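Section 3.1: Structural characterization of target chains.
Under the original work plan, the team committed to producing a structural model for every single-chain target entering the pipeline before any wet-lab resources were allocated. The record below documents one such target. The sequence was received from the expression subgroup and is listed exactly as submitted; it comprises 124 residues.
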Amino acid sequence: VQLVESGGGLVQPGGSLRLSCAASRFIFRSAGMSWVRQAPWKGLEWVSGIYSAGSNTYYAASVKGRFTISHDNAKHILSLQMNSLKPDDTAMYYCAAGPWNRDRLSVSDQYTYWGLGTQVTVSS
């Protein structure tokens, strides 16, 4: 298994969660890495991305200002800090990695490796 997500759970609206994705050193070396989510009965939605060897971060409009993506290169961990969560954020969240291409960061088939996902439920 190349990518393993953790940190999901049930949280009330307005609350916070921090997702983590443990990646192999091979994947983390030089890759575009993103969080992608899928809500019930909906397609994949790109959430946020980062280049594993850089610091620029990218966000979907729906999460900008609330979510923060980061990586720890020493531990090969990708993280997503989610604040001010809304019911619409309820979804399975996947960690994905593939060749870096800024123009294709939000395109699902850009990613070669996927984790099994971690469920986030925002409900009162």
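The helical segments are 25-28.
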